[in-house]
TrEMBL record:
Family membership: Belongs to the peptidase M24A family. Methionine aminopeptidase type 1 subfamily.
Name of the molecule in the record: Methionine aminopeptidase
GO cellular-component term (any): cytosol
Subunit: Monomer.
Reaction catalyzed: Release of N-terminal amino acids, preferentially methionine, from peptides and arylamides
Organism annotation: Arthrobacter saudimassiliensis
Cofactor: binding comment: Binds 2 divalent metal cations per subunit. Has a high-affinity and a low affinity metal-binding site. The true nature of the physiological cofactor is under debate. The enzyme is active with cobalt, zinc, manganese or divalent iron ions. Most likely, methionine aminopeptidases function as mononuclear Fe(2+)-metalloproteases under physiological conditions, and the catalytically relevant metal-binding site has been assigned to the histidine-containing high-affinity site.
A Pfam family hit: Peptidase_M24
Length: 273
């Protein structure tokens, strides 16, 4: 078997993905704002779905291999793929909200972490380090030569942060995105000896580090979706979809294209021509 073929997008196709990314950003804004003590995770799903519907976009999560909701809500020791339901959010919970949108057949995928109410400083640090690691990976997509450079940058940043050691999940990784939500290539969040494919114009990637405060071993619950840390340690996910074009990179799911977080790292994102 050969390697899965990478789909290279035209500028017009990437601009449509940008439309999906902006709808998705607004939907995540609404879901994150709804993540307050006493809210049920299904409430977050409902407000997210309403934004997509109002914009005329569709969900790429709902029905995906039978997934029953428009977002994943992963709380505390839940790493990814948590199913929204009757779980009531409590003060101090940490929740990762992962969602996607489709506009005219083109996909966007993004995730954010919210700390509900008063934050444990260790959880705040976990989220801040995960988010910055994502931006370091995105900067590497702009400067690097190979997809593997993204994982190297994420790993180097996380392992270099002083204080409590955080684990980088290895069971779940980023991916290509375009006319489908999950495409080649895999985008690892850790350093390996593999360079991966060359970074080229037309490539769109979902960069999504997942970090934990303990051991990186995971298990899947009986619902066959929700992934938890085996040791019960808290986890975090941040994700953006990024387009690489002939003029530079543009973060499809960030309203400013990523400028506010990338420019301090020496990268100036460029809108898709």
């Amino acid at each position: 078997m050969g390697q899965p073929k990478i789909q290279y997008k035209t500028n017009a196709q990437m601009r449509t993905m940008r439309e999906a990314g902006l709808v998705l950003s607004r939907a995540l804004d609404a879901a994150c704002a709804a993540a307050v003590p006493g809210a049920r995770t299904r409430d977050l799903d409902a407000v997210f779905a309403d934004v997509l519907k109002e914009a005329g976009a569709t969900s790429n999560f709902l029905g995906y291999h039978g997934f029953p909701a428009t977002i994943c809500t992963s709380v505390n020791e839940e790493v990814v793929h948590g199913i929204p339901g009757d779980k009531v959010l409590a003060d101090g919970d940490i929740i990762s909200i992962d969602g996607g949108a489709i506009v005219d057949g083109w996909h966007a995928d993004s995730a954010r972490t919210v700390i509900v109410g008063e934050a444990d400083p260790a959880d705040r640090r976990l989220s801040d380090v995960t988010e910055e690691a994502m931006w370091r990976g995105i900067a590497a997509a702009a400067r690097g030569r190979f997809v593997g450079d993204i994982g190297n940058a994420i790993d180097d940043y996380v392992t270099g942060v002083p204080g409590e050691k955080l684990g980088i999940l290895e069971d779940y990784v980023g991916h290509g995105i375009g006319s489908e939500m999950h495409q080649a290539p895999d985008v690892l969040n850790y350093r390996t000896g593999h360079r991966g494919p060359k970074l080229k114009a037309g490539m769109c990637l979902a960069i999504e580090p997942m970090l934990v405060r303990g051991d990186i071993e995971t298990a899947v619950l009986e619902d066959e979706w929700t992934v938890i840390t085996v040791d019960g340690s808290r986890s975090c996910q941040w994700e953006h979809s990024v387009a690489i074009h002939e003029k530079g990179i543009w973060v499809l799911t960030a309203p400013d294209g990523g400028a506010s977080r990338l420019e301090p790292l020496g990268v100036t994102p460029v809108p898709i021509p």
